[in-house]
Write a structure and sequence with these properties.
about 400 residues; 4 domains; 3-stranded parallel β-sheet; 13 strands
Amino acid sequence: MKKLLMIDPDFPKPPKSVNHQDLLPIGLLKIGSYYQSKGWDVTLHRLSESYDPPQGDFDEIKITSLYTYWSKWVIGASRWARRNFPNTPIEIGGIWASLMPDAVKEKCICDSVYVGVMKEAEEFEPNYSLLSFPIDYQILHTSRGCQRRCKPCGVYCIEPKQSFISSIKDKIHKRKVVFYDNNLLANPHIEDILRELILLKRQRRILHCESQSGFDGRILRKKPHLARMLWEAGFRYPKIAWDGSVKSWRKREEEIEILEKGGWRRADTSVFVLSNYEQPFSELEFKRMYCWKWGVQVNQCRFRPLDQLYDEFKGKKKNQTNAEYYIHPKWTDDEIKQFNRNVRRHNMCIRFRSKYPSPKVEYKKIPLELHEKVRHMKYSEAIHYVDDAWNPSEYTQCWK
């Protein structure tokens, strides 16, 4: 029997997030299923769990890659593999390998690079039994590719052709379902799929669903009835994107209203915004202020170029430069970190239904009587008692 070793590098993710739905090596789990169907013995080794090599010899080694700016962990994994299995062919696939195959060949120790999605493995469901821990959710794709051509996104490079499936009812094995589609609502069979999910929800075969990439607002505006279907299918924490100018705020407001009418609380809704890119700090801050007015959270994504091979961003470190992480010409290190702070405090207020954030109030660094008095006040009143209160409704350029 041939043996396959699949390696998930020790990417810089918090220990509590190793088993999170966004960071599972889902590609390797599908590849593992495919090779097992061919009679291979398959081992998944996650370097985040152990650097001790598995026992025995292997016929092939496959290493996955994620973001381009996490390249050094893939390089390290390839060196670890060659050191421990010097005679075994090594292949590297995944996001970085698909976007920059020549760089992977140059910087990693490998025999081949796989570009794109492995079509043979895509037909198989992930084999979660390869993991060293149980999970109570499953990950699904109903489509590949995306009809949008957003410049900061590499989806159309990795998955240039769109493909769809029309039914998922026979693929549901767990009560929690996470969809990895790049654009779930763009599937022409989405209404049939939602009807299946609604029935499964009513039968209590599923508990809830999530869409990792959120919902396409343009499709929601054209087909607002989808919002109610998504709600009845058990989708949680809806997200929409605000890539356009702040002048397009009416469209975002309409999309939020559609989601609210569909059944969601505004506080559970998030709006994706892209910082450190073409729109300057001022425009992103005005977008955040609109989100505060609407009572929704902000899901901030910091831009890195698709060919960026490093990212040493430190949120609490001052005066970082392009030598440490990518800073767009229209942004500064101070602005990137200020916007991070603004978004973090904004979201805390939305989640905890607070009118303002104040470390002194939050950590009870004021007399108990004063704490009880000010914690339910409006910002305009609280600022007279706690000098570190911040007003989320105001434009904030500098730390207060």
